[in-house]
Amino acid sequence: MIAFSNCKINLGLHIINKREDGFHNLETVFYPIPLADSLELIKNDSNLFNSVSFKSFGLSIDGSLENNLIIKAYRLLANDFKLKAVDFYLLKNIPMGAGLGGGSSNAALALKLLNSCLKLNLSNNQLENYAAILGSDCAFFIENKPSYATGRGEVLEPINIDLNGYFFVLVKPNIHVSTAEAFANVYKRGEGSISLKELIKNPIEKWNGLIENDFEKSVFKHHPSISLIKEKLYESGAIYASMSGSGASVFGLFKNEIDLKGQFENDFYFSCRL
User: Fold this and answer.
1) Which residues contact 244 (CB under 8 A, 6 or more apart)?
2) In DSSP terms, which residues pair with 42 in a beta bridge?
3) Which domains does the chain have, with CATH numbers?
C-alpha cells in the first residue's frame, strides 16, 4: 500500500511558558500543505513478527535507522500488538530541519498504514494517543485538518480557516536550526496575552504584524539570512509571510500566482495554489 504524507505550516506560534517536564506550553494553528513524501508499506513474506525494515530515497535523512520515526512508530505498536513483519519504503520530498513536520507526518502515516494493513482496528483517537508519544506535532497528522493546538502541540481542536485560492510559496534555505537552539533564547509571553485563537479570526490581509511566530526573534538574530527571505516575500507582494515552526523554512501567501524561484536559486523552493 502506498500513501502520501503531507507537511504542515504554523499560522502563528506563541510560546507561553516552560513546563516542569522541560517542555514548553504553546499555542499555534497547524495548516496542512500539499508538499508530500510517499510511503509504501509491504507485508513481508516471512513468518517473522515484530520485525521491520526501512529504505529511503530522495532527499537524505539524518540520524540513525533506529531513531527514524517510522521505525519508532512500528516499535511503539509492537509493544501492544503482535505485528507481522513489514518493509517500509519512503520517497523523501519534504526537507528536514524545516519546521514543516515532515518526520512527524511520516510517523503518523506509518501508524495509519499499519492500522489499516494489519487490521488493528484502532480509532483515530487511539492513533492520536500513539502519535503524541512520538512527537509533539505528530498527532495533528492523524486527522490532518486545520487545527488549533495547545499543550506541547498535541492538544488539538478543529479551527475554521480556509486558505483555498491563495497562492503559496515556501522557501527553505540550506540552514539547520535545531529545536534546542530555537528554544534557547525564545521569548516567552506568559499567561494573559491575547489568544492566537482570537487573533487569527482577523482577515488574512491584517495578519502581518498581528499573527506572530515567537521563534522568529531569536532565530532571525542568529540567522539573518532567514529574515531576509521573509522580507523578500513581502517585497514581492505577499499578504502574509512567516517562518514555520522553529525554522528554517519561510512561507508566503499571495493573492495572485507568482514565480520567485529565480530569487531563491540556492534554496529549496516549492509553490502551489492552495
Assistant:
1) 8, 9, 10, 98, 99, 100, 170, 213, 250, 251
2) 87
3) 2-158 (3.30.230.10), 167-273 (3.30.70.890)
CB of 59 within 8 A of CB of 92? yes
pLDDT digits (tens, 9 = 90+) for 139-166: 999 999 999 999 999 999 999 999 999 9
Q: What is the pLDDT of residues 63-119, one digit of tens each?
A: 778 889 999 999 999 999 999 999 999 999 999 989 999 999 999 999 999 999 999
Give me the phi and psi of 13, to 5 degrees please. -155, 110
pLDDT tens for residues 85-94?
A: 999 999 999 9
> How far apart, in whole angstroms, are the C-alpha atoms of residue 47 and residue 57?
27
Half-sphere exposure of residue 122: CA atoms within 13 angstroms, side-chain side: 22
Are 22 and 158 contacting, i.e. CB atoms less than 8 angstroms apart? Answer: no
Listed residue (55, 59, 139) closest to 105, CA to CA: 139
Catalytic residues: 8, 137
C-alpha cell read off for 207: 495578519
